[in-house]
Each structure stands twice: as structure tokens, then as C-alpha cells.
Design goal:
Helix content is 37%, strand content 22%. It starts with a strand and ends with a helix. The model has no long low-confidence stretch (mean pLDDT 94). It is built from eleven helices and 16 strands. The relative contact order is 0.14. The protein is α/β, with parallel strands linked by helices and 305 residues long. It is globular, with a radius of gyration of 19 Å. It has an eight-stranded mixed beta sheet, sandwiched between helices. It has a two-stranded parallel sheet with strand order 7-16.
């Protein structure tokens, strides 16, 4: 039985990945500041603290693989200067802690699989971003670049590294979809801005399969866009969700960009940004998406009873 050590393992993606790993016979250790709150009896919870740069070395020594998902939620709070700093440091300092621990502790870790984000890319409506594109010079572009650079240090320790630039994750358990759905409970399918901005998205099921694939496929290395092969506009995504959840009983509503800027502040830039990221590189490794189209994804997420 191989062991996977997960940072950020109590979050939406980490929880779903843990379920898949347990199902496939792996031992899972979740690093958390509060291991005493761990609820899954099949999981071992071990302590780490990014602020004090401490980690349970016994847990690290058991690991064959590390999945690095840790980082403050980008969309959870308004982007004050303090929050923006927290978003950056939660990623860079957690990566720094992993690298330091691997350097200082005898271990058998073969591969590190790290999250990043399509926020790495800039805004070009007609451009389809590939993994070789340069990072945007904006806040999220700089943040994701620092994130990737921090964890890249594991390669100098002889570890393989896979980095997934994750798009908008579609799950009923949280994330963007939960926010998109809120107005629909009252019958309104709410489009952001003019709705023409592209969204690179991925179904939670496919995302955790990608992380699992990185564990079982020894040849997989490098950076990959973790996005479905068919990006859609914000309007198309909202309409697909509304059709799947409500049939025809909904009304379209638009939230003007000016209103979003007042409500969200600087974060509105990301809501209105258009990013089309290519899934070609990961598909060329043989990976097949279970939910390649937005309609198929939404039909699974909102099944007809």
C-alpha cells in the first residue's frame, strides 16, 4: 500500500481526491493545523503549521507521493491588501516548508503533484493559452508564478514534479458553481458583465482523476492545464447550469461590470477576465475526460429526478 500525503486535504478538491485514493487502496495522510478535528476515520491526520514552518516529519517519512493543494481561497474574501498578501504567502510559504522538510528529512517521496491556476494567464479573448505561454503581469499572474517557482525547488532534490494549472472547478460541494447557483434558486440565471468572457472550467470528477493519474502514471511530469477541452463563455456556462437545474423555468439576468466592480472591488477583474486554456497537452498523454462538454458536466451535477 502506497501513501499519499496531502496538503489542503480538507478542502473541496482534497476531500474528493482523498475519497478516490481510499477507494483505490492508498493510505492517505492529510496535513492540517488541527489534526484533532479530522473526521474521516480512514484518514491519518498530521500536524503542520505554515506560519511557524513546522511539519510532522514522521508523516513525511511515510509518504510515497505529496499532493500540494494548500493555499488561501482566492474568491472567499474581498481583496484587501492584507488578504492579497495572505493569498500569496499561503502558497509560497507552504511550498517553502515542503522543500525544506524534504531536504532535512530522510524520505522516500517519488513525486510531488502541485496545484496552480489558470490565473497564471492574461486576458486575450481570441488567444488559446498553452503551458508554454508567459505569465500575466497582473496580481494573479504574479501570484501563480511565485507559487510554481516555490514548489519547483523539489526538482533539485531529485523529485519528479507535476503542476496542474486548474481552471474553474465545477462541484456541488463548493467553489464557483455554488455561487453561480445562488440566484438560480430564485429563478434568475445571472450572467456576469456582458457574459462574453471565456471560462476555462473542469468537472471535479475529472480534476481528481487528473491528480490520481499523475500518481499512477510514472511518465507524467511537467506543467499541464487542468481544464476541460471545451472552454465556454460565462453566459454559456450559466445557461447550461440553468437548463440542467431548472429546465425552462428561469429568467436571464445580467450584472453590469460597474456593479461587479463596486460589489467585488479588485476581484471583479478576475470575474470579468476572459481565459481560454488548452487541454491538448494533457490529452496527448492519453487522458480522457469524463465530462468534456459543459452540458455533460451540468447534467451530471444537476441530475433529473
Amino acid at each position: 500500500m502506497e501513501t499519499v500525503l496531502i496538503t489542503g486535504g480538507t478542502g473541496m478538491v482534497g476531500s474528493a481526491l482523498t475519497d478516490l485514493l481510499l477507494e483505490r487502496g492508498y493510505k492517505v495522510i492529510v496535513l492540517t493545523r488541527t489534526p484533532e478535528r479530522g473526521r474521516n476515520k480512514q484518514v491519518t491526520y498530521a500536524r503542520w503549521d505554515v506560519n511557524t514552518q513546522t511539519i510532522d516529519t514522521a508523516a513525511l517519512q511515510q509518504a510515497d507521493y505529496i499532493v500540494h493543494l494548500s493555499g488561501a481561497n482566492v474568491g472567499e474574501k474581498r481583496w484587501t491588501d492584507a488578504r492579497k498578501q495572505e493569498i500569496v504567502t499561503s502558497r509560497t510559504q507552504s511550498s517553502e516548508l515542503i522543500v525544506k522538510a524534504l531536504l532535512a528529512t530522510p524520505n522516500k517521496v517519488k513525486k510531488v503533484i502541485s496545484a496552480s491556476a489558470t490565473g497564471y494567464y492574461g486576458q486575450y479573448t481570441n488567444h488559446i493559452f498553452t503551458e508554454s505561454d508567459t505569465p500575466a503581469q497582473d496580481y494573479l499572474g504574479t501570484t501563480t508564478q511565485l507559487w510554481e517557482q516555490g514548489i519547483a525547488e523539489v526538482k533539485s532534490l531529485g523529485k519528479k514534479l507535476v503542476t496542474f494549472r486548474i481552471g474553474i472547478v465545477l462541484s456541488r460541494d463548493g467553489g464557483a458553481l455554488k455561487e453561480f447557483y445562488k440566484p438560480l434558486r430564485f429563478g434568475f440565471a445571472t450572467v456576469m458583465g456582458n457574459g462574453e468572457q471565456y471560462i476555462s472550467w473542469i468537472h471535479i470528477h475529472d480534476l481528481v482523476r487528473l491528480f490520481f493519474n499523475a500518481i499512477v502514471n510514472d511518465k507524467l511530469e511537467g506543467t499541464y492545464n487542468a481544464v476541460a477541452p471545451n472552454p465556454v463563455t460565462n453566459k454559456e456556462l450559466i445557461q447550461a447550469m440553468a437548463r440542467a437545474a431548472k429546465g425552462k423555468s428561469y429568467m436571464m439576468a445580467y450584472v453590469p461590470a460597474a456593479v461587479l466592480k463596486v460589489a467585488l472591488g479588485e476581484m471583479s477583474v478576475e470575474v470579468l477576465k476572459s481565459v481560454r486554456a488548452s487541454a491538448d497537452k494533457i490529452q496527448h498523454t492519453g487522458f480522457q475526460f469524463s465530462y468534456p462538454t459543459i452540458d455533460k458536466a451540468m447534467e451530471q451535477l444537476f441530475p433529473k429526478h
